[in-house]
Design brief:
Shape: elongated
Order of helices and strands: EEH
Number of strands: 2
Radius of gyration: 26 Å
Distance between the termini: 78 Å
Structural class: little secondary structure
């Protein structure tokens, strides 16, 4: 037997206890089980702390631990002086 589903779109807030609090009552007589899909807004940009956390805990930069990647020494280049 196939179960038909209908969608109801509403808005809600996730409170400090990680509970979903609906802005409006649902037009459904309960109790009944439902399936919930939560769409979170994307952040436009992540802050510097997030970048540092991702870079230090992820494996994307593990190749830099390889000694073969140490191609520069202190004698390469020249000191940078930004005093004008």
């Amino acid at each position: 037997m196939k179960t038909l589903e209908r969608a109801i779109e509403t808005t809600a807030t996730i409170n400090v206890r990680r509970e979903l609090v609906l802005d409006e009552p649902l037009p459904v007589v309960g109790p009944t089980r439902v399936r919930v899909i939560v769409l979170l807004p994307e952040q436009a940009d992540i802050d510097e702390k997030e970048w540092l956390r991702a870079g230090s805990s992820g494996s994307a930069f593990d190749f830099l631990k390889d000694p073969a990647e140490d191609i520069y020494t202190r004698s390469d280049g020249r000191p940078f002086d930004d005093q004008r």
